[in-house]
Design a protein that fits this description.
By secondary structure, the chain is α/β, with parallel strands linked by helices. The chain has a domain of 178 residues: P-loop containing nucleotide triphosphate hydrolases (Rossmann fold, 3-Layer(aba) Sandwich). It is built from nine helices and twelve strands. It has a six-stranded mixed beta sheet with strand order 6-9-10-3-11-12, sandwiched between helices. The longest helix is centred in the C-terminal third of the chain and has 16 residues.
Length: 260
């Protein structure tokens, strides 16, 4: 990972829903080519934070910088245009279209013949085949409708599409919740390949083993604040669980009480 300016930087980000304070001053950063696992209990604020980064929600206060510039994304489409994509476990593919059609959705290659735009099917298929091969993704036929593919294959299509079209930061919200063991293994390998291409990756997961397998850093959110920001190589599951549950704070309070 580079020591250069972070790809994404959040400073004092808060979010209020009426009297409820979902985020209470989030400070964190993500570098190019880095995988950050975002962990926390239900209701900790993880999904709210991801929606703010991806333009789905507006922060109540604070500052977000992307590629060194302060940004205020008014919608997910604005964030997407800047190179930020969110991949949810239910994905956003058109299941009654084939792999090539999904890959090029809205970006089809055409040539005009007598003024009529004609799809360049072979050229598009060659582009998709190369993108899939470069990512190590195997799909028997690129002309298979997505509805006939496994969850892991569908996820691979979405990630490969994102990388191919110039994505810079991808947010994965519980990406393996519906996948089997082998599909999850391949998905984790793909995340590392995506990061190796200089793309920042944020993974929300409730499975500790996945976080330790794939992430460079683990950021723990608890009650709307950053409870811990740790290098994966310098921590362990027990320490992370303590941060998620607040056990570290509880023990510290007991220690102080016992010394009086």
């Amino acid at each position: 990972m580079s020591e250069e300016q972070p790809l994404l930087k959040l400073e004092g980000v808060t979010k209020n829903f009426g009297a409820i304070q979902a985020l209470r001053g989030i400070d964190m950063h993500i570098s190019r080519g880095e995988v950050v696992a975002l962990l926390g209990d239900n209701g900790a604020g993880k999904s709210t934070l991801v929606k703010i980064i991806s333009g789905g929600l507006q922060p109540s206060s604070g500052k977000m910088s992307f590629e060194g510039q302060e940004r205020h994304f008014a919608s997910p489409s604005e964030a997407k245009a800047a190179g930020i994509e969110t991949v949810y476990q239910d994905l956003s593919l058109c299941t009654n279209a084939d792999v090539v059609a999904n890959f090029f959705m809205g970006r089809e290659i055409t040539r005009r013949v007598l003024g009529v735009p004609i799809l360049q099917e072979r050229e598009m298929e060659e582009v998709v085949a190369k993108a899939m091969a470069d990512a190590g993704t195997r799909i028997p036929s690129l002309r298979t409708n997505v509805e006939h593919l496994s969850g892991g294959q569908r996820q691979a299509i979405e990630l490969n599409r994102f990388v191919h079209w110039g994505g810079k930061l991808v947010l994965l919200d519980e990406p393996f919740a519906a996948l089997g063991v082998e599909q999850t293994r391949r998905g984790l390998e793909m995340i590392r390949r995506v990061a190796d291409r200089g793309i920042g990756v944020v993974v929300i997961t409730h499975i500790m083993a996945q976080a330790f397998q794939v992430a460079d850093r683990i950021v723990v959110i608890r009650q709307g604040t950053v409870a811990g920001d740790l290098k994966t190589s310098e921590t362990n599951p027990d320490q992370v669980i303590d941060l998620i549950t607040g056990a570290t704070l509880s023990r510290a309070g007991k220690d102080r009480g016992g010394s009086n």
